[in-house]
Amino acid sequence: MSPIHSLPVELLTTIFQLGVDSDPIPDDQTRGEHTFEVLVSHVCRHWRHVALHTPHLWTTVHFRTLAHMARGEVYLARNAHLPIDIYVDTCSEDDYHLRKDLLFRDQFLAVFNVVLPHIHRWRELHLIVADLECKSFARQVLSKCGTAPALRTLQLWHVMNWQTSERLFNHIGPPPVVVFGGALPSLKHIILQGVNLPWSRSPFLCNLTSVEFALHSDNVRMPFALWRDMLRASPALTRLSLLFAGPRASSSGTSPVPDGIEWWGAAPPPPDAVLPPGAPLPPSTDPVQLLQLREVQLNNLEADYLIALFRTLHAPAVRSLHLGLDFDDQDFTPFIEYLAAPPGPHKLANGAGAGAARPQPKFPVLESLSVSALKCTVPSWRALLAVSPKLTRLEADFTQLSEHAFDVLLETVPEPQDADARPPSPSESDGKGKARADATEAKTVPILPKLESVRVSGVEGKQLSELATFRRMHGCRIRRWEIEEGARDEHSEALEQDAEAASTELLKRRDAEDREAGRACEPWRWDEPLEKVVWFREEEEDGEESEFDDGEEGYAEEEDADGEGEGEGGGE
């Protein structure tokens, strides 16, 4: 018996389960790449027997081609009881003319005939349509299927080429339908792209941990009152992603209380303002508390809309922020200035509040910033970075930022004060206290002093080399450099060589210290490089799927036969 067959079945099963859990989800998988469960079931007869009797391997059912329909039935048979994740990816009319094996109108209802009998086991549903007739079929299925009690993730995509944001903004489609009978008691994650719901008849929009809305024309967006209710009913929300979507911007004209952006995003009135009796206060006076929110992604939204939106939210624990703000050539300086220093409370009529502490940045503990597009002034960009001293990761396409935006990274700022430090007492405002304060203010560090990882494009190798030298000189090395291949030149290659040399020298020094201290060298130990350069290319379009990816196993039989061959391919 070969050594591999000596592994206990229980251990082999655990390895298989770990492997399938680490496999990319179908949306992220490279076309032509074989799934983990298929690979391990083709190694040999023994592995195939174990794989086919491990239901956990067959929980993801992906439909994209005609061959996937038969495959889906086999997956569901191999996993008869565990929750299932369903991916249905239908094509556009143009794509169907090019590839007749893709799922299109005639196959749409047939796909759901396969999975609907198992709706009580649905854990995730990811549905993509790129055709209006397929969308009508989706409305029909989801409005009649009834509840999915175990569904935790709902992703509905309607992919269309609107050509301009104006066409999308003014698009009027049929009224939305109630999905799943309005009952999804386990829902935690919702992703809607180009798809809207009857918001007032979707009570399952609560207790959410992630919300992703994209490509909603203003007339179908959620009224602000319902948006506010959804967020208030989701205190554990950790992720919010908006791409040309969010609460409605314009007034509906049907509410006794103003409900447009000009009201719900208005700044709170000063405390000494005289208001008419019964006059409603704007929502910014009582922002929604999202204390668990960690990640925010903002794409293609207007500057004044964003300011209004975030006046109504309090999310001090955000760690990750993505900005892809390329909207009709707008200047986003006001929004960036708002993030850097939101206006503080007004001074009270009796003078109280004067001399209050300067306002905190909107996201005071930001650790990761990604910018794919942003038009703003260099001073506002500098202000945002200056109030983000905890930032450890920066991703930026500097071709989409203002000229000289990269140069800000070569500047210094006063060393950040320890957040736990005791503020000076009034008696320390003069004398020695003042001297100590002056000494503290005199010490400077590079902007973003904790920065450890960068991913940049649109920057020359010479600029990167200058940044590396500047950071090393101040003792604030960047540990990981992800550099676009287009920036490869003598300067960036010299940066790579310097990084390798510094890492090698560090390793030698650590080994010498270990020997001097009498510590045994550990051959299995892996030390993080002091600096490392990684080159990347912009993502290319996926190629055509291989024949194996479409047919995969063939799946003609349900169980092993004695005559089944061994080795890769398994005879199928």
UniProtKB/TrEMBL annotation:
Signal peptide: none annotated. Residues 429-441, 506-523 have a biased composition (Basic and acidic residues). Residues 415-444, 487-523, 535-572 are annotated as: Disordered. It comes from the Eukaryota. Residues 538-572 have a biased composition (Acidic residues). This is Uncharacterized protein.
